[in-house]
Design goal:
2 domains, about 60% helix, about 0% strand
Length: about 400
């Protein structure tokens, strides 16, 4: 029996098409392109994630649940997706047609693909939950005002959670025994879960587009300068890259579903999944970059770059207005009068006051910025001399008049 298995492992994994000769020595692969893509993903996403963590810990001085989820998503990307991908690049004929592989090489690739796919489902569950919570916190805060943005954000959040919980479970336990998922020589009972993946890719594309549209709709209804809206919107359009990769992945998933050349189509589909996850991670981290740029403005070597970023994103340094403070007054810019950065909570309060109409006008470029520009102090706040003969004379004259 052992000899039969050893002989089977040396056989071609798939019969080549008519007129095609199998090449086990030097076949076509995507090793070079896949390796460059994976290195770029890790090299760009890692600084972005740690910049977000630094900004929330050092500048904002508060970590929310989405920050922990984004950090966990990055760990899953590096450990669960990139590590098996690098092993596949250096130890298998990645991207080769299946007829150019032996059965042993096919088993090795399918095992790594299984780990990557399960990690992708779990990582997307965590990442989309973080993005959904971030949208709810920023654009649909819990103030008792429940509009379309509130309900749509909740629908996307819980829909993605349910979908990717199911996909993760199906990917991990699609066969019994589990070895039958990747070992074609093991007989087991398996579910045809690729159909679920194909339907899920369509829902995934729709949810990606909505996660881009919801912030844009909320941003462009704010009462602020157009340049400020453009700057804030630019922080969220990175998600368009995830939408494009997700849309391109649909036909690739259909081809994978109907094709017997699994290794070739799975690499193409997996590459788009990697890029989709990468753009989603970037979209979750980019919104904190303006605050990080403001922090850098206090550091001399980065002052000019930070000033350029603030002008591009519509931020400006402001000074506090004189007179009694109001709950709706805010100071947006590098520092307030005491030199402290504005926190996320204060920013969300300001956004909510704008959305609910309690903030009458906002001019992000006005150095004497005060949201309640039409506010008039009551008469008793008027400044006049008190406790002197001159003040008593003025008071008596006022009564007699």
């Amino acid at each position: 029996m052992s000899l039969d298995r050893e002989a089977l492992l040396r056989l071609p994994a798939l019969a080549p098409p008519p007129g095609v000769q199998a090449n086990f020595v030097n076949p076509y692969t995507t090793v070079g392109a896949s390796n460059a893509r994976n290195i770029a993903i890790v090299a760009i996403s890692t600084p972005l994630v740690w910049t977000r963590i630094f900004t929330k810990c050092r500048v904002v001085r508060r970590m929310d649940i989405e920050d922990y989820l984004i950090t966990l998503a990055w760990v899953i990307l590096v450990a669960g997706m990139m590590t098996p991908a690098f092993l596949a690049v250096h130890h298998t004929k990645l991207g080769a047609h299946q007829w150019d592989l032996t059965v042993a090489e096919l088993i090795e690739q399918l095992h790594l693909f299984h780990i990557i796919t399960a990690s992708y489902c779990a990582g997307t569950l965590v990442l989309k939950s973080a993005i959904g919570i971030q949208c709810l916190r920023t654009f649909a805060p819990n103030t008792g005002r429940q509009d379309a943005t509130f309900y749509l954000s909740h629908l996307l959040l819980w829909g993605n959670i349910v979908l990717y919980l199911v996909l993760t479970f199906l990917e991990i336990f699609s066969c019994w025994p589990m070895e039958a998922i990747w070992d074609v020589t093991v007989h087991g009972r398996c579910m045809h879960h690729m159909l679920v993946h194909m339907l899920a890719s369509i829902f995934n594309t729709v949810s990606d587009f909505l996660l881009v549209v919801i912030p844009q709709k909320a941003i462009w209804t704010l009462h602020m300068r157009t340049s400020a809206k453009v700057g804030i919107s630019a922080c969220f359009v990175v998600g368009i890259g995830a939408c494009m990769c997700s849309a391109l992945r649909i036909p690739r998933t259909v081809e994978l579903f109907y094709s017997s050349d699994v290794t070739y189509h799975m690499e193409l589909t997996g590459g788009l999944a990697f890029l989709e996850f990468f753009f989603g991670l970037c979209a979750a981290c980019v919104p904190v970059l303006p605050k990080f740029a403001i922090f850098l403005s206090t550091k001399t070597p980065f002052a000019s770059f930070s000033s350029y970023m603030q002008r591009m994103l519509g931020y400006s340094q402001v000074t506090p207005v004189s007179g009694p403070a109001s709950p709706n007054q805010a100071q947006i810019g590098t520092h307030n009068a005491r030199g402290a950065n504005i926190s996320d909570a204060e920013f969300h309060d300001l956004v909510d006051s704008i959305r609910t109409g309690t903030c009458n006008s906002v001019d992000m470029g006005d150095p004497s910025f005060a949201p309640m520009s039409n506010y008039k102090p009551p008469p008793e706040w008027r400044t006049r001399p008190i406790g002197t003969p001159e003040s008593d004379r003025i008071a008596e004259a006022s009564k007699s008049g």
